[in-house]
C-alpha cells in the first residue's frame, strides 16, 4: 500500500528531511525539497541553521523555490554573499549540510549522478559528480533523498560511485562523509545494517515492509522488534511549507511528461510576480 | 591601457587546440556571446575547462569545436540533461575528464600559486579517482596516509562575462561569483565581456564587487545580454523558453541546423534581433 492518502507525500518527505537537520550549519539550497527542508528546520527544529538562497550564496535568507530566481532572492533580501571558497571551506571544516538527490543509491550508501552503465561507454551520461566527492569525504553527516523509491534508484550496486558510501569506499577516508540518512517516499533509512548497509529506520504511515522490499534492488536490513512509523507533518509544518512555496515548485519534482511541462511554464511565467509580491526591491541596483 | 576589443578580435586570439577555461555556472552568467562566436569560428580541437558547465560546453560540442572537456558537471539544471554533452559522452566522440567542483578550483589555484598540484581527500573512495587519469593517489609525506594530488590546470585563455567593466579590464560581479576569479587569475590571457562599460570612477564605487582585477585581463568587450540565454543576476534571469527551444532543436539534425542558422552563425546584434530585440528581452527577462 502506498503512503496514507490523507497525507501529501511531498510534505511528509520535506518534514522528515527538516527533522534531520541540527546545529549551526550552512545549509545549501540546490533543490526545492532541500531548500524547503532547510527553511522548515530553521523555523521549527534548528533555529541556528544558516540557510542559503542558492547552492553557493545568500546566507540567512528565507528561501522561496523558483526556477531561475535564487540569486535574485539573495539580492532582494540582501542575503550575506558567499563565495565558492566559502562553501568548500565550510564543507572541509564540517560546517555545511546538504540534501543530495542522487539518481542511484546502493546498499552501502554509494551514490551516483554521473552515468548509467560503464563510465567509458555510458548507456546514459548524466551530469557528473559535481561536489559530491567533497561532501562524502568531509561531512560528519550526509543526507540523501529519493522521491520515487524503485529498484532502478535504490540498487544493490551503483553503476558509478560519484559519492563514497560505507564498506570498501571508506578506505583511506575514515568516518567523515559516510552516509547518514536516506529519506524516500516510502520511509526513512539509515546505514546501521551489517557492514554499514542500509537499514529501515521508520516507514511512512500506510507503507508496508513488503512494499519496501518489492521496490528495492536488494534485501533491506530490518532491525529486530517493531518497525516504527514516521511522524507525520504537523499542521504548523504544513503551513510553513505551503507559505514558503507559493508557486508549488516542490510539486514539479514529483511530476513528469506533459503535466510537468505545463506546470514548469506556469511557474516560470509567475515567478517574477511572486517574488515581487513577497519582497520589495531593495537590492544592489535599487539602492 | 584601453583594452576594448570586438567579439571577433577575442576569437582571433584563441588558438586552435588551446585550453580554454569558461566562467559562470550551468545556466548562470556564462559568457555566451563569446562562446557563440567561438562556436561559429573555424577553431578546432579546443580543450574546455568548466567547473559547472551548461549551454556553453554543450554548444561548443554541438558545433564540433571540441577535442576534450574537463568538467565537474554539465547540465541544464531544472531543464534536464545537456543533449550534445550526453551524445558525445555516449558515442565517445571526444575526450572527457571527470573532475569535481572543488578539484577544478584546486587545479586552477595550483596554476595560480605556481605549484604542480594541490592535495585533497576529495574523490578518495569514489570512481572519479578510478576514471580520471589526471589524478594521482599519493602518500602524505608526514603521515603516510593516502591523499589525492590534483594537477595544476593552466588555461591558455579564460572567457568570462560580468555585469560591469571599465576599459582597463576591471570587472564587477554582482551575483554569485562562481569560479570566475580563479579562471581569470589562472589563465595566460583572460577576455571578459560585460553588460555595460562604466568609467573607472563609476566602477570603483562598487568596492569589493570589483572582483576581476585589470592586471589579469587582456581584453574587454561590451556585450549587453552577453550571457543570454543564461541569466546574469541581478540584470536578467535565465531564458528558460529559449533553452527549451534549444533542447527541442537538439533532438533532430534538421532542428539543430535551423537553430545554428538562427542563433549561432549570426553576430551578437543579429542574435538579439532574432529574439525580437532588447525591448522584448527586457519584458521577458528583467526581474
> Low-confidence stretches of chain B at least 5 residues in length (pLDDT < 50)?
none
Under CATH at level 1, the class of chain A stands as Alpha Beta
Tell me the helix content of chain A: 25-40%
Ends distance of chain B: 35 Å
CATH superfamily of the largest domain in chain B: Glutaconate Coenzyme A-transferase
What is the count of structural domains of chain A? 1
Order of helices and strands of chain B: HEHEHEHEHEHEEEEHEHEEHHHH
Characterize the structure shown:
The complex is a heterodimer of chains A (287) and B (287). With 287 residues, chain A is of the alpha/beta class. The mean pLDDT of chain A is 94. Chain A has nine helices and 14 strands. Chain A has helices at 9-18, 32-45, 70-77, 84-92, 132-138, 209-214, 235-244, 249-252, 257-278; strands at residues 26-27, 50-51, 96-97, 99-100, 104-106, 111-112, 115-116, 124-125, 143-146, 154-155, 181-184, 187-190, 199-203, 228-229. The longest helix of chain A is centred in the last third of the chain and has 22 residues, at 257-278. In chain A, helix 1 (9-18) packs across helix 2 (32-45) and helix 2 crosses helix 7 (235-244). Chain A has one domain (9-278): Glutaconate Coenzyme A-transferase. In chain A, 31% of the residues lie in helices and 13% in strands. Chain B is globular, with a radius of gyration of 19 Å. In chain B, strand 8 (157-165) and strand 9 (171-172) form a beta hairpin. Chain B has 287 residues and is α/β, with parallel strands linked by helices. The longest helix of chain B has 12 residues, at 101-112. Chain B has helices at 7-12, 32-39, 55-62, 83-91, 101-112, 128-131, 180-186, 200-204, 240-249, 253-264, 268-273, 277-285, and strands at 19-22, 46-53, 66-74, 95-98, 117-120, 136-139, 146-151, 157-165, 171-172, 189-197, 210-212, 217-222. In chain B, helix 2 runs parallel beside helix 3 (55-62), helix 3 crosses helix 4 (83-91) and helix 5 packs parallel to helix 7. In chain B, strands 1, 2, 3, 4, 8, 9, 10, 11 and 12 form a nine-stranded mixed β-sheet that branches. In chain B, strands 5-7-6 form a three-stranded antiparallel β-sheet, with helices on one face. Chain B is 33% helix and 24% strand. Chain B has two domains: 7-100 and 154-285, 3-Layer(aba) Sandwich (Glutaconate Coenzyme A-transferase); 116-151, no CATH class. The chains are: A alpha/beta (287), B alpha/beta (287).
